[in-house]
Amino acid sequence: MSRKWMWYYPTCLEEVVSLLWEHDDRAVLVAGGTSVCLSPPPRDDLAMIDLSRAKLAQVEKEHLGIRFGAMVTAQELATCESLNRVGAGMLRETGGAIGPRPIRNRVTIGGNVMQAFIWSDLPVSLLAINTVFQIHGPKGTRQLAADELMASHPGRSLERGEVLSNIEVPFDGPKTAGAFLKLSRTAVDHALVSVAVFLSLDDDDQCKTIRVVAGALSPLPQRSESAEELLRNSLLQPDTLKEAADAASTARIINDRRVDADYKQQVLGVLIERAVNMARVRALGETS
Amino acid sequence: MKIELTLNGEERTLDIEPDELLASALRRIEFKGVKRGCQDGSCGACTVLLDGQAIRSCLLFAAQAYKRDVVTIEGLGSIHEPHPLQQAFVDHGAVQCGYCIPGTILSAKALLDEEPHPKRKQVAAALDGNLCRCTGYIKQIDAVLDAAERLHPKGN
User: I want to staple A2 with a disulfide (CB 3.0 to 4.6 A). Which of A73, A239, B17, B53 is the partner?
Assistant: First the structure.
């Protein structure tokens, strides 16, 4: 017997906000639909809000960076050439790693961030860049940095009637680059472990700023602050990378029925070394 | 609830349940070429085209197809008038049990619409989401490359 859901097809952001406010805890935002199809909330009276016609998929290139609407897809990120200037292409790498083409055609920035499954890829890279998220609601628009949004499950940061509308990512400054790496069982599977690195070098090629984020270890992506501390102000040479990888192994790793925590811990270290080195090479303008 | 959409080139109004998946709705109407495999988006047997893009019909509610353009394998060609992709798959022996084939061909169609002369690697990447237990994929990739040539002969 089917459930008595109502479907809505808002054509602008204000309408989305109004529907969210009106339907409150019965409201379900449907972006690509890939996760809500598999596990819809167990209620008969849902208000399903199809976001695909609300003009939330714009890509706006500005002087200092790019603004993406929350409905921009993983495939669009993967093929966005302007993103070569953000983390030297790390968001293209991330978008391109989210499953095979039919999945990438549907997974959206907003859905991937707000659902924040343990294996979700975009939250890891967006946290590494400390992306700015725009939230729109009944009182207008506010901004949250990734550090704030991902301190707890992103859904918790939104009030009644609010929706993630855009993200903003800055173009790289000089000697700035990033990298995203993911281990999965097949090339197109969910992450078992993922790492995103975003760094900048000073005039002497020493690491000036660095953010190292690990994903798929625990419910939310984690900064590896102990690794960052060792890497900052260093020349990012192999010894230092090894030390940082060891330091990162103290990350919180929860049980995963697919592979055990020991294996994830080992792989984490390897991915950190590789990702930091990739980012370093890119920041120096060398071809890796 | 009723939705209007374009289905295999025809404007149609469908009666659907609000929580019905597109894969189920399509099969229920008549389009058995849409296959049920994993039912969680991993295998690709349910792949259809939505506004020209390959997507998982098991991961879309039928209601999301409102005013969209949906193409199943039946919309591509028939046994009497096969699409060059379908003919190429037959000619290359790229079909064994046949279960993955509708989805695979639709993924290939989406690729060729975007990239008329793909390299082998691009074909492999486009078909990455269509699991096949029978063929080992080589002949499928050969077939797609051949179909590309048939559809858009180089030198034209």
Answer: B17
